[in-house]
Amino acid sequence: MAASRGDRDDPRVETLRRAVTRLRAELDAHPADLRDRREAERELDALEAAARTGALDVETLRRALLLLTAALGSVSALTRPLGEVRSAIDLFGVAPR
Predict the structure, then answer these.
(1) What span, in angstroms and rounded, lies between the C-alpha atoms of 92 and 61?
(2) Would you give the DSSP letter of residue 94?
(3) Can you state the angle between helices 37-53 and 11-29, rounded to 10 degrees?
């Protein structure tokens, strides 16, 4: 999906922004020293930037989700916000094979 003015009005983009913001807040509040926290934070930064600029490519979104899941998927306290990010990314469709 290429960047365009219409992306700013796309409800999928707002849903993604909200989901990323919530996951970041939950990650920031999580007290454990997570081994892959920095990787997760980098992916959240990338998702925020993509949503802000409208540079939303399904393959890139799916890759970010895969890395976030690998980094945070075993942390039960982050299951719900991570699931919200997944649901938001699912709104953009599946990546071409």
Answers:
(1) 9
(2) P
(3) 160
